[in-house]
Design a protein that fits this description.
By secondary structure, the protein is of the alpha+beta class. The protein has 22 helices and 20 strands. It is globular.
Length: 571
């Protein structure tokens, strides 16, 4: 490709016609990024085909020309608003360093590596980049070693207090304070949803927890304190987790599932056949270890619940965390059956693993020629594979039900792959922001800015034929994170109807923190809004039609939410 001036590039962008699917012309910054990537890719391809000295010199010449183009005033201006375009300068300098090193031009190779450092200190990426065999002859050079030391600075400067720390029964008081301090400081700097905890004084909370972690003389006691610190932020993506060695001491649970249904706490699944004689689906839990169940949940469970909404909090209190505890200590349940008869059962806790799971990604054809597919998670592409496997039946169906009631999230991309089979429109996404720098203009005045995260081109149908019939998506308070991104996009596409309950109201991206003793924490730093700018986190996505399980339906083994969906198709 001949070298392209910025003016010509802008004219080319403005003159681009809309294609068959009305795709908008790329922005000037995107077009600049595409041009830089095209040159880099062409150089890489040419060097694969031929890498003699003449080819390397030609490659260096083209890359130097690209550096000059990226350094023109207008391109630099575009780069200030586009991280993707801006950081092409770093990539091109890396390409140049490799080419000059292969040419044996040591000083020029080192110049290019030093220029990379102007874009940032690369931390974890330092060794993978400098391990390139092209740099073998440079590794003893003092300048090369100085570059490595500078690039590695973040590994020292930003190292977690728990980095390299392993589990011990007792930690020093300094380690305990350091762990609390790190989580407090990182949340103060990065957390995206302080507005969802409007009454929280984060500094005061830190001061109140300091004597508690000082007094927690065992690692188990320490993490029981820490795990009450994160929930103050009221965010489902912001948590503290104990070391693996403590999981069965803190998170073991019996092989049953419970849920809050119509203000009653019910057994909704029994996963151990040995318990079937004493426990039945539909039994109401009246008390736990002699304490009324709701009082128990508020006192023993709620302080450890990190949640963004009331519905997410109730789910975690009465389902996920209600019966967790020490694997060596059984739990005593006071139960009431459907006739009102009350009894007690003592049940052993098993492990911290989930007590049981239904068939993943279940597919079936329902009455009225309606296809049903459960999308149980987006942690893998299992749902995408299941859709493809059953696509012939789905495409012939009169309607489609996608069930994300139990979907706790994973990768948004997997949900988008499902949506691409339902529309030829670009898949909408949340508007995503991160915190900008806090600026102290005076001692008493601080501001916080929200900076948009770089956006990539929206996903589009890449599978060919799409399902054009009516689609219903089933939601619940268990619909969480990437599953909410899926529902968000489905709603924005106006592709069908949602039925069920309001979703958890928690999506985003957390950073991970290594804590002393082998535990870890995470803090949500990405702030997602609806495509129209509306709020999602802290509220959830309400369904078009509300439908809920009832005590009667649990005991009868029926699914009123699915029945409501089928009624929608009939109507």
């Amino acid at each position: 490709m001949p070298r392209l001036s910025l003016a010509a590039l802008l004219c080319a962008c403005l003159a681009l016609p809309a294609d068959a699917d009305d795709r908008a012309a790329p922005s000037p910054a995107q077009a600049g990024y595409d041009y830089a990537q095209t040159v880099r890719n062409e150089v890489s391809t040419q060097l694969k085909d031929k890498s003699d000295r003449v080819a390397l010199e030609q490659a260096a010449q083209r890359l130097e020309g690209l550096v000059d183009w990226l350094d023109t005033p207008l391109t630099r201006d575009l780069g200030t608003g586009s991280r993707y375009l801006y950081f092409r300068g770093l990539d091109v300098q890396r390409d140049l360093a490799v080419v000059y090193a292969r040419l044996g031009q040591t000083d020029k190779a080192l110049d290019a590596l030093e220029t990379m450092g102007r874009y940032g200190w690369l931390g974890d990426a330092t060794e993978p980049i400098l391990a390139d065999e092209a740099f073998a002859a440079l590794r003893e050079e003092p300048r090369f070693q100085a570059i490595r030391a500078t690039w590695s600075t973040p590994l020292r400067m930003l190292k977690d207090f728990g980095a390299g720390s392993t589990y011990r029964e007792r930690l020093t008081v300094e380690e305990r304070i350091a762990g609390l301090t790190q989580f407090w400081a990182d949340a103060r700097q990065y957390f995206a949803h302080f507005d969802n905890a409007p009454a929280l004084d984060w500094n005061q909370a830190y001061l109140e927890f300091l004597p508690r972690v000082i007094a927690a003389d065992t690692t188990a006691a320490y993490y029981q304190v820490l795990m009450q610190f994160a929930p103050l932020l009221r965010d489902g993506h912001t948590n503290i987790f104990p070391p693996d060695q403590l999981k069965d001491r803190l998170y073991a649970r019996p092989p049953i599932m419970t849920a809050l249904v119509e203000d009653a706490v019910l057994v909704i699944a029994v996963h151990d056949p040995a318990l079937a004689g004493g426990l039945r689906v539909g039994d109401e839990i009246v008390a736990i270890d002699g304490m009324p169940v709701k009082q128990y949940a508020e006192q023993k469970v709620a302080p450890y619940v990190s949640s963004s909404t009331a519905q997410d909090r109730a789910l975690r209190m009465y389902s996920y965390q209600l019966l967790t505890g020490d694997a060596g200590v059984p739990v005593r349940l006071t139960l009431r059956d459907g006739t009102g008869r009350q009894r007690e059962e003592t049940i052993a806790r098993g492990s911290a693993d989930a007590p049981g799971k239904r068939e993943p990604f279940a597919f079936r054809m329902l009455a009225g020629d309606i296809a049903y597919l459960s999308l149980d998670h987006f942690e893998s592409d299992g749902g995408v594979i299941a859709f493809a496997m059953h696509a012939p039946q789905i495409m012939r169906a009169k309607g489609l039900i996608l069930d994300v009631r139990g979907n706790g999230g994973g990768s948004t991309a997997h949900g988008e792959s499902i949506l691409q089979r339902l529309t030829n429109q670009p898949i909408p996404r949340a508007l995503s922001f991160v915190r900008g720098p806090s600026i102290a203009s005076t001692e008493s005045s601080r501001t916080l800015t929200w900076e948009p995260m770089p956006a990539t081109a929206p996903a589009r149908n890449r599978f060919g034929k799409v399902f054009a019939g009516l689609v219903v998506v089933l939601t619940s308070e268990q619909t969480f994170s990437a599953a909410e991104d899926f529902v968000l996009a489905f709603n924005a596409l106006e592709r069908g109807t949602t039925i069920g309950a309001t979703t958890a109201g928690s999506t985003g991206q957390p950073i991970g923190i290594k804590l002393p003793g082998g535990g870890w924490g995470r803090i949500c730093y990405k702030r997602d809004l609806l495509p129209d700018g509306g709020k999602l986190v802290g509220r959830g996505l309400a369904p078009d039609i509300e439908a809920f399980p009832t005590v009667k339906s649990v005991r009868a083994g029926t699914d009123p939410v699915l029945q409501r969906a089928l009624a929608t198709f009939r109507r």
